[in-house]
Specification:
heterodimer, A: alpha/beta, 3-stranded antiparallel beta sheet, 8 helices, 9 strands, B: mainly alpha, 11 helices, about 85% helix, about 0% strand
Amino acid sequence: MRGEAMLEVRLQTKSFTSPDHGTGPPVLRDIAFCALPGEVLAVLGHSGIGKSTLLRICIGLDRDFVGSVRLPPGKLGVMFQEPRLLPWLTVEENLRLVQPVLDVSMLLEEVLLPGVEKVLPSALSIGMARRVALARALAVNPDTLVLDEPLASLDRSIAAALGARIADRALRHGVLVILSTHDLDQALAMASRILVLADNPATLSADVVVPARDAAGETSRLREHLLTKFTFLSSQEMARS
Amino acid sequence: MADIRTQQAARAISLLGLVAMWWIGAHVAEAPQMLPGPLRVVTFAWRETVDGALPRNVCITLARALAAFGVAMLAGGVCGYLAGRFRGIDALIDVWAVVALNLPLLVVVVLTYIWIGLNDVAAVLAVAIAKAPTVFVTIREGARALDPRLEELAAVYRLPFRRRLRRIELPQLMPYISASARGGLSITWKIVLVVELLGRPNGVGFMLNLYFQDFNVAGILAYGLAFAAIMLLVETVLLQPWERRTNAWRSHA
């Protein structure tokens, strides 16, 4: 059944409208793609290009656009760019908010954050709070998982381990994962497909399949190709080195 | 914990200071008919307590005040929540609220007595009508200030209405609810006294009117202060601990 459930995005334009300034210039244009359960789609682009806006459109939180979006039926797990934990609830209560019947300890183990069940969010670092938000997205046992910069603010080792777990969950349980990132290496490590947003207004400038993990040479070639083609990626690479 | 003890000590010292000023004032004035001292008032209150008149009338007034307070909080709170969440409902109720806020209390009380009759239902309703608009305005502001990001969270996880209300919206509304409750209770019982004075055969308001006609200042002070003391007790024993408990998470933030 999951094979029939497909995400379809046909976005012509997206502009922001405000009561004072009317409709602004388009921020997204001509973005069309489909995705099947079990795929991990990484939306790659520099900060502020509209990745979060595209994800919000995909999950139906932003309907002010020209085009159409069809989200697969089934349960949806979402991790927003900011954790959005309820500060008056403990970590456990935050997780049970979306799924009352739950093995909280096991879920926290899965996001590498054991033993914080009774802690209030104010006592967590931003990285820990983001992992709780990821756990909350996983708590509903989602058919579609939408993650906005899921590995930001995390140590490299933890980010790598969590990235592998998310990709593994998609493969094993047939979960469709859409995530946004500005980090090419994270995208290559986690995704089965990469959608690159570039230009102004942002358009879908590349839609590439990431080779399987054992084909290391092909992945390196893809990495070089993307670095050459998109200057924002090479700038990031230079800044990092 | 130390903070709470310090606050309670400060309140007790402040109260003792007030009694001391009263005692000095009565001593200086040397007019026990106009300003009786604390001891004279306490003696009068004790006599009325032994007689049973004071506890009976205080209980009657307290019951009316609590009933009116409950109705005002419920009606004002629900309407305020709906108006804050839905613009259409706000447009419908807002004019009513403005009219109710500006209607003189005496007009409300007199009309309610004329239309419903000189009974407890009319008394409670009059007080509730007088208080509900301020609750409405406060809770509406709270509902307008609900965090839209948490609303999105509830929407994407399709949270049932009751869980959304209990876990997401009520904790955000709690400061507004407690502000309404604390301000509301003190205003409510004062309005109840006026309502009793105008049309009830019992209660603290009725007794105050009775002693006013006798120019019995000790009686007026005994009933007035006895009821104020009970309201202070309600505030200290019920409202403040409740407010502290619901806002406990803020001290960790």
